[in-house]
TrEMBL record:
SUPFAM superfamilies: TPR-like. The lineage of its organism: Bacteria, Pseudomonadati, Pseudomonadota, Gammaproteobacteria, sulfur-oxidizing symbionts. The keyword Hydrolase does not apply. This is Outer membrane lipoprotein BamD-like domain-containing protein. TPR repeats lie at residues 129-162. Keywords: TPR repeat. It comes from endosymbiont of Galathealinum brachiosum. Pfam families: TPR_6 (PF13174).
Length: 944
């Protein structure tokens, strides 16, 4: 081997080593990665002798007869040409003083030809992967990307273990990505990610793998890929608990942020923040996790999905409530609510912020001082705003519960930030809220604290005055054992207010209000004293203060039982109350009632002493002094009662009648007035008026039994008054409404029937007698001797017309027809008398027995006196008479038997006019036989 050949081979080896060992890794930005594939690495140096070396290699290839190093020379020429092409492409000058585009293009094409020649000359060579690698570069430089891809595909296929396989796959992935062949690009990137974690292209491949998955809408896979990338950055300490570390350069920061951006996009296409927790179930908590929540929330914000943004930020706070970043996330949520104008959510979120991170919370206790300092301004602002908001809301609603809510927020501020300069004003507002929520004791403490424990401020005097007003309220409510203490506290507070704020406009009103408080606290002596201060002070000209003082004074005198003095004071107070509006009229009415009560109390004192006349006069004076008083009616009623007790019926009835004329008292005491008037009218003999009042009382009766009794008494009173028609109408009304008590109902029937005894037509009498009999019969076991007597009497009276109808039938020709008619009426009459006898009332039994006997006797006589047929001879007439006697005799005998029943009753010591009449009949019919003692057999009532 000659010297020239040795020199050429040595130079070739140097270039091979340079080309293979001195490639420089170019820093790629996130923007570069997203927009275009990564470029090929550029040679580190440019040799001025490169063109000369190419000429030498070409001469070598053309002239040498020995092909031992032909392949190396051929490849080296192509490599040198490729280097020149790369330098020109990147704007590197100094290539032999510069070259035009045509020359450079020729060099590029020459390198491609040399590589292809090499591959044709040495097919299947073990290092052809490097040739294919360089050929792909050359094709890329001339823009023939398909052929570049073809060359790289051959490397992948034939040289899967090539030391350039990671770069080849990455270049393939870039080309495929640009061509939007995302699935194939994913496969190319995946080779590097799976097999070549140590490759300098690993992170970029991982990043582009995620993009390829995202472009295919494989969002779950995308998330897993980018989480792996973020795991690397966290391991490299480029991410800490506060986010991306400050030491990270701009390019790397953009790379991380863009990875988070794709992550957030993927999450937004899935289930948003709800997707995050499952992703980290097996991964554990990561430092970059807050960045994922933040980026997703900001993505929603950019898309104006404010509610989703806020939900995402809040999701982090719920998942990691103790994180130092949670307040910041909560603030981001609040900002989202504000930007989205979701006002209702802002309120709740602020409340939650204070609850979660406020002073005294579990979170606050666990944080470092520097972290507390960070959130303190937000806490102050939120608590202040919440206090004002809820106070305004309470003032609008006027509800105690709303004021209590506002008070709670003011207390939160005061407990959390007691040294803030606005604490004094917040304390005053806190007291206001407590007062309006009726928490008067707490309000009092806070008013006095605001007035006297802070340096002087705008609300000092107002707070002191409010404390006095609160005492007034409390003095109305204290328990007895607290009264003295509270009274003294109120007095001390009044003195303190006067000394501290002597120029305050409320000073005169303080004394008046104190007097009112003392009155409410039932300290009537001190109330009198304070009221007199205002009454006696001529310098005080405020009409309302004077009026209030007189009212307090009057009330105090009344409570002290100084009723004469109270009456005078009430009279003055009433004169000082105008008649401008409803409140004034209401106050006048109240004071008038108290004036009346003062007089009424004087009357009661007289009554208690037994001075009934003076008491009655005083009671009546109530109506004269206070005619509109609500107790006027009571006083007059009491006066009437006293006059009744003194048997002055005329005066009492006059008072009661006057009361009835007044609408209010007439309604209030209507029943009592009627009750008393019944007594008074009865005593005066005005029974008709008494009856009328009883009727009124019946209308008031709530119980049926009371109404029944009063209705009966009304009827009886009308009877007593001689107004029988009115009484009868009441009895009829009674009968219709009340069938019980049974006996009283029967009695009512009797009285009605008696009323119609002298009235015409008689049918009303007969109707009511029948009603009486029917009603009594329905009585069953309730029937009494009295009811039977009345029913028997009615039945007996009802039988008389029936008997009369029997008697009226004349036995004229034709006798047979008329006799049949008379017997029929006889049966009816006997039946009616039998009904009377069924009652077994002696008086009517004897009468019925007599009348029954007389019916038979009448029939016998009627037969004998009946009309004789015309044209009879003397003998025929005599014979006819004998026949009539034979017909009449049985009836005469039955008459004797029935009358004998009455005669027998004398042995039972029963002897009345009907028995007497029966005996007379017996003596007239059988004068001789009657003296004998005979057995009287039972008789048949109905004959045939």
């Amino acid at each position: 081997m000659n010297a020239a050949l040795k020199k050429g081979i040595l130079l070739l080896l140097v270039f091979i080593v340079t080309a293979c060992g001195n490639e420089v890794k170019k820093e790629i930005t996130v923007k570069d990665l997203v927009i275009s594939p990564i470029d090929y690495p550029l040679a580190s140096t440019v040799s001025a002798e490169r063109l000369h070396a190419i000429e030498q290699y070409q001469t070598y290839l053309q002239k040498t007869e020995f092909k031992t190093h032909y392949g190396e020379a051929l490849r080296r020429i192509a490599d040198l040409e490729l280097e020149i092409s790369e330098e020109e492409r990147h704007g590197v000058h100094g290539v032999g003083g510069g070259a035009d585009e045509a020359a450079i293009q020729a060099i590029k094409l020459s390198s491609i030809e040399h590589y292809n020649t090499y591959l044709r000359t040495y097919p299947g060579h073990e290092k052809n992967d490097l040739i294919l690698y360089q050929l792909a570069k050359a094709y890329s430089l001339v823009g023939e990307m398909d052929k570049a891809m073809q060359a790289m595909d051959e490397i992948v296929k034939d040289y899967p273990e090539s030391r350039h396989i990671d770069e080849v796959q990455f270049r393939r992935g870039e080309i495929l990505f640009v061509d939007q062949e995302f699935e194939q690009a994913e496969q190319a990137y995946a080779v590097i990610v799976t097999k070549y974690q140590q490759s300098p292209l690993y992170e970029k491949a991982l990043y582009k793998l995620g993009w390829s998955q995202f472009k295919q809408s494989h969002y779950n896979e995308t998330l897993q890929t980018y989480l792996s990338l973020l795991d690397i950055k966290e391991a490299e300490q480029k991410i800490d608990q506060y986010g991306i570390t400050a030491s990270v350069n701009r390019s790397e920061k953009d790379f991380i942020i863009d990875s988070l951006r794709v992550t957030s996009l993927s999450l937004s296409y899935l289930n948003g923040y709800k997707t995050i927790a499952p992703l980290f179930k097996d991964r554990g908590d990561k430092l970059y996790l807050p960045l994922i929540y933040e980026q997703l929330g900001r993505l929603y914000t950019r898309k104006e999905r404010y509610s989703d943004a806020a939900d995402t930020f809040m999701a982090f706070t719920k998942k990691y409530p103790m994180s130092v970043l949670s307040p910041s996330f909560h603030s981001l949520a609040l900002l989202a609510y504000k930007d989205g104008k979701l006002n209702s959510e802002i309120l709740n979120s602020k409340i939650l912020y204070v609850k979660n991170y406020g002073i005294g919370s579990k979170y606050w206790k666990q944080q470092k001082l520097e972290d507390r300092v960070v959130i303190r301004p937000d806490l102050i602002r939120h608590v202040r705003e919440l206090s004002f908001h809820f106070h305004a809301q309470a003032r609008k609603s006027k509800k105690q519960k709303d004021y209590k809510i506002a008070a709670t927020w003011y207390l939160t501020f005061l407990n959390s930030f007691p040294k803030e300069k606005e604490a004094a004003n917040m304390n005053f507002l806190y007291a206001d809220a407590l007062y309006d929520s009726h928490s008067y004791k707490q309000a009092l403490v806070e008013y006095e604290k605001s007035a006297y424990q802070y340096p002087a401020h705008a609300k000092s005097a107002e707070a002191g005055y409010a404390a006095l007003l609160t005492y007034n309220v409390l003095l109305k409510q204290p328990k007895q054992k607290q009264l003295v203490q509270l009274k003294q506290q109120s007095l001390n507070s009044s003195i303190r207010f006067s000394n501290t704020f002597p120029e305050d406009k409320h000073a005169p009103a303080v004394i008046t209000k104190t007097a009112e408080n003392l009155l409410q606290a039932k300290n009537y002596v001190l109330a009198t004293e304070f009221a007199k201060r205002i009454i006696d002070n001529q310098l005080i000209t405020q009409v309302d203060l004077k009026r209030t003082a007189w009212i307090v004074y009057a009330h105090a005198q009344y409570e002290l039982e100084l009723y004469v003095e109270a009456e005078k004071a009430y009279a003055v107070a009433i004169r000082r109350v105008p008649r401008k509006n409803k409140n004034d009229l209401k106050l006048r009415a109240e004071l008038t009632d108290k004036l009346a009560a003062s007089i009424y109390k004087q009357a009661e004192i007289h009554k208690a002493k037994g001075e009934n006349k003076l008491a009655a006069i005083a009671f009546l004076r109530v109506g004269k002094a206070a005619p509109s008083s609500s107790i006027r009616a009571t006083a007059e009623y009491d006066a009437a009662t006293l006059y009744m007790g003194m048997n002055d019926w005329a005066t009492s009835s006059s008072i009661l009648e006057s009361m009835r004329m007044a609408p209010s008292s007439g309604m209030q005491f209507a029943q009592g007035i009627s009750t008393k008037l019944v007594v008074a009218y009865t005593e005066l003999g005005h029974f008709d008026k008494a009856a009328k009042e009883l009727g009124v009382l019946a209308g008031f009766a709530k119980k049926p039994e009371d109404h029944r009794k009063l209705l009966w008494q009304t009827a009886e009173m009308y009877e007593k008054a001689g107004q029988k028609t009115k009484a009868n109408n009441i009895y009829i009304k009674y009968i219709k409404k009340y069938s019980k008590p049974f006996l009283q109902s029967i009695e009512a029937h009797h009285r009605v029937s008696e009323y119609y005894k002298t009235k015409k037509p008689a049918k009303q009498r007969k109707s009511w007698l029948n009603k009486l009999v029917s009603a009594e019969k329905r009585g069953g076991k309730q029937r009494t001797d009295r009811s039977r007597y009345l029913a028997a009497s009615a039945s007996f009276e009802l039988a008389q017309p029936v008997i009369l109808q029997f008697q009226k039938v004349k036995l004229s020709i034709p006798l047979k027809k008329n006799l049949r008619n008379k017997k029929k009426r006889m049966e009816i009459a006997i039946k009616s008398l039998k009904k009377v006898m069924d009652y077994k009332v002696a008086e009517f039994s004897t009468a019925s027995t007599y009348q029954m006997g007389e019916i038979y006797n009448h029939l016998a006589h009627s037969l004998m006196e009946s009309q004789r047929p015309k044209g009879l001879s003397v003998d025929e007439l005599e014979q006819y008479d004998i026949l009539l006697e034979e017909q009449a005799y049985p009836f005469e005998e039955k008459s004797v038997d029935i009358h004998s029943i009455n005669a027998k009753r004398t042995k039972q010591n029963i002897y009345d006019e009907w028995i007497k009449k029966s005996l007379a009949v017996l003596r007239s019919i059988q004068p001789i036989q009657y003296s004998k003692h005979e057995k009287i057999e039972s008789y048949v009532l109905i004959t045939h």
